[in-house]
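#onboarding

Welcome to the new folks! Below is a worked example of what a typical request in this channel looks like: someone posts a single protein sequence, and someone else replies with the predicted structure as tokens. Don't worry about understanding the tokens yet, we'll cover that in week two.

Example request:
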Amino acid sequence: MTITLQQAQTIVDAALAHGTAEGFNPLTVAVLDPGGALVALGRQDGSGFLRPDLATAKASGVLALGMTNRAIAARAADSPEFFTSVAALAGGKILSVPGGVFVRDGGGALLGAVGVTGDASLNDEAAALAGIAAAGLVAQTGAEG
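Example response:
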């Protein structure tokens, strides 16, 4: 099972709208399928040219390692050499900050991941959560408890 183009576009649109409503800096949103392929990307005017790569890296990292950004951050803090090695193997497409979020259906099946960048990491994550909720899907960040 995978995220649909319609779901991905809904996530992008709603995440960007959330950022605008909250007064965030210009955001970029990437939605990937479970295999890491880009399904949809949106970049607000004024968002830096590296932002698509950063958004993709946030989503790609959670998929590649099968763990939330918070778990990646904890692992990077405990073992910096591990994180450095994995980041090098992944061509830099792994980040250890909030903003990369798993997307699941109501039954818990993995549909893909969303990466958002442009503002503070927790604001990026909040925009991702808003987008995922607007698509009627379930987010997993590692902060759920």
